[in-house]
Amino acid sequence: YIMIPITDKIKFIEGKNQGRYIFSNSLYIDDDLKAIIDTGTGKSPLRKLKKNYVGNDEILIINSNVHEDHICGNYIFKNSKIALHRIEVPILENIDRLAELYGIDDPKYKEMNEQFFAIFNLRNYKADIKIEDNHIFDLGEIKLQTIHAPGHCAGHCMFWESNNKILFLADIDLSSFGPWYGDISSSVTDFINSINKAIKLNPDIAISSHKGVYKEEIREKLKIFLDKIYDREEKILNFLDKKHTLEEIVNKAFIYGKFPEPEEMFAIAERIMVKLHINRLLDAKKIEENPKSSFFAI
């Protein structure tokens, strides 16, 4: 497994497949109280970390959000306490509710649901620490500040280590895909505000859950990532120079480009994301909805 020291106490652990979904990257803090942000690296990196560094010591697991690729390895550390934003605790403690967030809780998606839960080996976890914005994790020498950064999902958090100006971006992930907000608790407007929070912090080092460690041009990369939201909205608005239904917009796959397998699940996520853009365009009075449920630019 790949572990990269960022400081003498803070270490980056790369997830399998370079941290791409279905995996994610972790940050390990080797201090008076050991801590790890997210556990989606895959089993073998976590088992090696446990063997070589953690042993039977207590470890604090900080989940940046409740999505499967951030919590799925929590069970590896038996002597642990788990911290998560308060708003997502009910889902962590009753993980079947994750299907609600993705709009796949309808019985017709039963098979898809079962496969999804099996891939990630999902189970219920008790949240020992229910965090909110500005919660400070005092680990010894290292102090981590929680920055509530909703948008990707309602409880999504970044973590800031001010002495070294290190920012764990979590799913503000700087990927070429751009922001993902296909969860029913997602918000495009919140996502924009959260990216701007990260830009304002002006970190010297940024860690993405799916792309790795950045030390140069971080603000520029965040701005490029942010602009993808506006590009998508522009494409949808341009498409609506003629009347189109929600389904017609979804089928154009303006966000995914092409739906990966399972297509149905990604189309559901596209629909959630498109609806968020439609509501923003309606609120901005850039489009109207006619009685036959089609939309058109004003």
Q: Spans of 5+ residues with little confidence (pLDDT < 50)?
A: none
CATH architecture label of the largest domain = 4-Layer Sandwich
Q: Give the biggest sheet.
A: 7 strands, mixed
Number of helices: 9
Going across the major beta sheet, what is the strand order?
1-2-3-4-5-6-7
From the spread of the alpha carbons, the general shape counts as globular
Question: What this model shows, in words?
Answer:
With 298 residues, the protein is of the alpha+beta class. It folds into 2 domains: 224 residues, Ribonuclease Z/Hydroxyacylglutathione hydrolase-like (Metallo-beta-lactamase, Chain A), CATH 3.60.15; 58 residues, no CATH class. The protein is 33% helix and 21% strand. It is built from 9 helices and 16 strands. A 7-stranded mixed sheet has the order 1-2-3-4-5-6-7, with no helix packed on it. Strands 8-9-10-11-12-13 form a 6-stranded mixed sheet. The protein has a 3-stranded antiparallel sheet with strand order 14-16-15. Strand 4, helix 1 and strand 5 form a beta-alpha-beta unit. The longest helix is centred in the C-terminal third of the chain and has 22 residues. It is globular, with a radius of gyration of 20 Å.
Key structural traits:
seven-stranded mixed sheet, alpha+beta, 298 residues, Metallo-beta-lactamase, Chain A, 21% strand
Short summary:
The chain is α+β, with helices and mostly antiparallel strands and 298 residues long. It has nine helices and 16 strands. The chain has two domains: 224 residues, Metallo-beta-lactamase, Chain A (4-Layer Sandwich); 58 residues, no CATH class.
